[in-house]
Design brief:
This protein is α+β, with helices and mostly antiparallel strands. The protein contains 6 helices and 4 strands, in the order αβααββαβαα.
Length: 152
């Protein structure tokens, strides 16, 4: 009796590469503010702190420099929470004002996956500005439009 093949052709690279893949997909263009609330003495707060660190990486900040990341540290045994306040166009698209993730029982990868599923999809589409022409290309186009004049 043989075991049939199921799965991928190659092995997974691990949790670190999965977090890296999800981090590349994070897009905060549809977000005004991210508020992260946690109790530093709680047991399951490590993943929330790691997510806070990952939000401050230059690549994520570059997606929306106007997005404010605020931390609220509380000592009342409140569960960890990540709250995304959306811009108006994202509010209309998702039909909610803000998105809250209760992150106390989630690991870092799951928080990033939820962020990509609910937040990155709400980002407004980029407008295509067209191709930027160099000075030489502009002169070439302008020169082609002129007729060659014969000398008399």
């Amino acid at each position: 009796m043989s075991i049939y093949y199921s799965g991928a052709l190659k092995r997974s690279q691990g949790i670190v590469s999965a977090i890296g893949k999800e981090l590349k997909r994070v897009n905060l263009k549809g977000v005004n503010r991210v508020t992260i609330t946690f109790d530093p003495f709680a047991e399951n707060v490590k993943s929330t702190r790691e997510f806070l660190f990952l939000l401050s990486t230059p690549r994520v900040v570059q997606t929306n420099p106007k997005c404010v990341v605020k931390t609220d540290i509380v000592c009342n045994r409140q569960p960890a929470e990540v709250k995304f306040s959306l811009i108006e166009s994202a509010q209309e698209k998702l039909k909610v004002k803000d998105v809250r993730l209760l992150s106390s029982n989630l690991n870092t990868l799951e928080i990033l996956q939820l962020c990509n599923r609910h937040i990155s999809t709400a980002a407004p589409e980029e407008e295509d500005t067209g191709k930027v022409l160099t000075k030489a290309e502009k002169q070439k186009i302008a020169g082609a439009g002129k007729k060659i004049q014969k000398k008399k």
